[in-house]
Specification:
single chain; 253 residues; alpha/beta; 34% helix; five-stranded mixed sheet; 12 strands
């Protein structure tokens, strides 16, 4: 019998504008994820989130698909990203997901591992970190979620435009993780394995902690150009990539 495994994904950025990504995700849930011990979604599942009361049909379709997976006894865990930090317990209940803290340590087959979205590691992006501290306040989130739906839809469209222009203006170094922040956070949580998304730069990085121990940082891939997931099992840790429905290549790294 093949080893069971845990799957981790991030940065799907689901939206009505990219039905190919939605199709790939629904297939992933109905096929590969059903063979897993658990599925972890480390943020930015959606391109933008304006509240659990959003009537967009895509949200209900995704919630139903995730709920179907959990009905097979496969738990799904969700860590907020910078695009869907307003996702609350109502949608989590609707989809069957369990919400995680921003920094969560999980034991994967005997290996304590820190899970996070990854945006807090990009400390050189001072403007973004200032904004992040602002929207992380419960009172601010409460205030936004109690504005009319049409106004939040307007804010969502504006946020997407601003994000696009910011990416063009900022250097790649600023938008990546700060090298000194990674070992600091890993030492704080007493782990040698870290998994995150956000940067859209899938890779496996080996580093050394301050006490001399070796450590590993796994960066999840985004789903703009492929479907991507990390598979963790007793046999090892592997990043997988597969073409979206419109493409024909498949590879494993």
């Amino acid at each position: 019998m093949a080893d069971r495994s845990t799957l981790l994904i991030a940065d799907l950025h689901l939206s009505p504008d990219r039905p190919d990504i939605t199709q790939a995700f629904l297939h992933f849930l109905a096929d590969r994820a059903r063979k897993a011990d658990a599925l972890y979604i480390l943020g930015d599942l959606f391109e933008v989130w304006i509240g659990d009361d959003n009537p967009e049909p895509l949200l209900a379709e995704v919630a139903a698909a995730i709920h179907t997976l959990t009905s097979y006894g496969i738990p799904v865990y969700f860590c907020h990203g910078n695009r869907d930090f307003l996702l609350k317990q109502h949608y989590a209940h609707q989809s069957g997901m369990q919400l995680l803290a921003p920094h969560t340590v999980v034991d994967f087959y005997g290996t304590p591992t820190l899970l996070m979205h990854g945006d807090s590691l990009c400390t050189l992006d001072l403007g973004y970190q200032k904004f992040r501290r602002w929207w992380d306040q419960p009172w601010w989130q409460w205030l936004i979620l109690h504005t009319p739906l049409w106004y939040r839809q307007h804010l969502g469209r504006k946020a997407r435009r601003v994000s696009t222009s910011d990416k063009m203006a900022k250097s790649s170094m600023i938008m990546d993780v700060t090298p000194t922040e990674v070992p600091r956070v890993m030492a704080q949580h007493q782990v040698q394995h870290l998994v995150h998304g956000h940067t859209h730069r899938p890779a496996v990085h080996q580093l050394q902690l301050q006490d001399g121990r070796e450590a590993w940082r796994y960066v999840l891939g985004d789903w703009y150009n492929q479907s991507a997931y990390l598979e963790v099992s007793h046999a090892g840790w592997h990043l997988h990539f597969a073409a979206l429905p419109s493409k024909s290549t498949d590879q494993t790294a």
